[in-house]
């Protein structure tokens, strides 16, 4: 083994191969791979090129003609491989298959540059919305949950971004995998954790709760960016309403509570218990409002039996 390392080219090949082996086993295999083609291999592509080139040069050191032929064959294989992979995403009639049809795998370059869905590519759409959100949230400390929306977070400059699958959060990343699924997306931030972390919004995603008081709409161009609130931050929402009364639309939750409390005595205890639990997590845990909360506790004490 020591003799092998005495030659620089041998040492480079062995060290690079060892690094690839360790990286492939102890990281890529350990985390279960990824759904994007070869994304986890990008950091080690230079190592792969070094191994390939030096190996060919050593193999054909005395037969230069074969070395040239080998490099030409490599170019042909690259073209054939690209064509083969492209065929995975296109039907025989030339029509492109729906994105993520193949167990969540798609042609990522095409997906993020195509204009078929919205008239502009998804990254440009996120940029337009993100820059507008940055204007609304400037000088505000806002935490946002991102679900496959890295470009939105990049252009919006949110104070904190929690990536749903754990990319930027150690707690989510170390959750156990309950069921195997789409690689890299088998963990999801629990709702309770998001509330405890004080996450304000998630944009453009299926609602966690369909209650109307959780919805917020931010004007972005000629349309609105839809968001869901995980909790009501009185200070933040009052500032948004004061600064942008015609651009940011939502239901002021204190006013919603006043309407609810006006008919409190007409409601059944079971209904109030369920609603108060939601209101507590959404509002009372994060805002000091003893006057309104005492009306709930008084009602529940009155109907204990």
Q: How would you describe the overall organization of this protein?
A:
- The longest helix has 24 residues, at 8-31.
- A six-stranded mixed sheet has the order 2-1-3-5-4-6, covered by helices on one side.
- The model has no long low-confidence stretch (mean pLDDT 87).
- The protein is built from 13 helices and six strands.
- Helix 2 packs antiparallel against helix 3 (45-59), helix 6 (122-137) runs parallel beside helix 7 (150-156) and helix 12 (269-284) packs antiparallel against helix 13.
- The protein has three domains: 2-108, no CATH class; 122-251, no CATH class; 256-302, no CATH class.
- It is elongated, with a radius of gyration of 28 Å.
- A hairpin with a 2-residue loop joins strand 4 (215-220) and strand 5.
- The protein is an alpha/beta fold and 305 residues long.
As a percent range, the share of helical residues equals 40-55%
Portion of residues in beta strands equals 5-15%
Total domain units: 3
The coarse silhouette is: elongated
In spatial order, strands of the major sheet run 2-1-3-5-4-6
Mean pLDDT: 87
Q: Give unreliable regions as ranges.
A: none
SSE string: HHHHHHEHEHHEEEHEHHH
Spell out the key features of this protein.
305 residues, alpha/beta, 6-stranded mixed beta sheet, 6 strands
């Amino acid at each position: 083994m020591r003799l092998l390392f005495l030659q620089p080219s041998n040492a480079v090949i062995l060290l690079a191969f060892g690094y690839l082996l360790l990286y492939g086993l102890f990281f890529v295999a350990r985390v279960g791979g990824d759904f994007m083609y070869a994304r986890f291999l990008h950091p080690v592509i230079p190592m792969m090129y070094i191994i390939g080139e030096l190996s060919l040069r050593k193999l054909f050191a005395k037969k230069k003609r074969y070395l040239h032929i080998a490099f030409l064959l490599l170019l042909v294989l690259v073209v054939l491989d690209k064509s083969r992979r492209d065929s995975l995403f296109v039907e025989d009639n030339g029509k492109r298959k729906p994105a993520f049809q193949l167990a969540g795998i798609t042609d990522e370059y095409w997906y993020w540059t195509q204009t078929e869905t919205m008239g502009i590519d998804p990254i440009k759409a996120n940029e337009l919305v993100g820059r507008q959100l940055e204007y609304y949230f400037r000088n505000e400390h806002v935490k946002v949950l991102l679900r496959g929306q890295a470009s939105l977070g990049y252009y919006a400059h949110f104070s904190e971004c929690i990536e749903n699958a754990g990319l930027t959060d150690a707690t989510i990343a170390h959750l156990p995998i309950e069921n195997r699924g789409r690689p890299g997306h088998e963990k999801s931030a629990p709702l309770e954790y998001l509330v405890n972390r004080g996450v304000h919004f998630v944009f453009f995603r299926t609602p966690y709760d369909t209650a109307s008081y959780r919805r917020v709409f931010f004007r972005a161009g000629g349309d609105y960016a839809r968001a869901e609130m995980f909790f009501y931050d009185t200070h933040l929402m009052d500032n948004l309403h004061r600064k942008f009364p015609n651009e940011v639309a939502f239901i002021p939750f204190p006013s919603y509570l006043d309407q609810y409390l006006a008919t409190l005595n007409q409601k059944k205890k079971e209904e109030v218990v369920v609603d108060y639990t939601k209101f507590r997590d959404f509002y009372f845990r994060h805002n000091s409002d003893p006057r309104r909360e005492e009306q709930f506790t008084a009602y529940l004490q009155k109907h204990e039996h």
